[in-house]
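Repro:
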Amino acid sequence: MEKSPKSSVAGRERDRCPLYTALRTINGRWKPMIFQRLDGGGLGFGQLRRSMPGVTAKVLRQQLRQLESEGLISRSPAPKPGLPGRYDLTPHGRTLGPVLEAIWTWGVAHMARTKRAAAADS
């Protein structure tokens, strides 16, 4: 199935947009939580999974690989056989901290506003 010229133009425009690029990079159900967990220091796969009980191993693995391919996290091999490797934020990944914090702050304010509006409508 061919894309229409209009959708192709829109897709190329989004690909060149820094905002869409940033949102696409951090988009994922578990990626913000992964960043939050790794902000305190490196963790192994099992530690990450236990700290996010709703995530499956398959999805966590996929999201970690995506973040690694973007250069936002790194995986250190296990120091000894049988021990887990560790995931850490890269210096570039750490630059997302203030961005995610700003989004968090906005989200808290937006949730409060939405709650107030719903209460006023009741």
